[in-house]
Input
Amino acid sequence: MSILSSPLLPLLPPPILLFISSLASPPPSYFSSKNNVFNLFFVKILWAWTTVAFFLLRPTRNALARYLAFTAYWIVWTQWFFGPPIIDRGFTVTGGKCEGEVSGDHFTSLACRASGGKWVGGHDISGHVFLLSITSVFLWMEVQAIQLQTPATQSYATKPGPIELEIRNSLQNASRGAGSPAKGTATPSTTMASKAPKPGQWTLEMKFAMGVALMSLYMLMMTAAYFHTAFEKISGVIVAYAAILAVYVLPMVVPALQSYIGMVNR
Output
């Protein structure tokens, strides 16, 4: 199977774009300011954009489990982990501190900056790289699974799920004309079939989700070009891909996980 036709294709762009953008030395621009509108109203609230885009896709049980796994991972790394999040804990453990009016061993970067202090000294894992990588892969994978009618799952799923079987049967019955109801009458099967996107079809919801994913990739490039050290960016993408590989690749080699978070039934 060609890598370009692989269901895992969405996993490739973030590290590739991160590497290419990190090598660039662009002159100062609108995106080199942290106060640019895309950073303030897109990246800073990216998980809200991700959540809206995801639920517009009408997720199934397995898809919802993947979303919850990524959400929990995002929370413990960037928002809260029995106090400061893991990224902030790692920063202070490696010698970082808040310089300014307020300081403390368990201070958060958000509270430090809000108090007028400066977060300095330790290793600052790039939260932007972390989140932008997860969002771009997550939404692209979910859209791909829908557009291809779950063939992203068929290479490792043992059998089609009930939803997929229902859609297949409905489409087959409609094409044969077998058991067709009276004109103007809709059955649950035909209703479900009419709502399900056909292979290759792009719905408005899918376009919106891919728009968020592509914008995330673009802002990942801007982050790599203008902010953070190489080690901070590398550690950010490593932390992101620990979750991405666990959610999308691990179920391929551990069959017991397929029924919980695998791409079967999307």
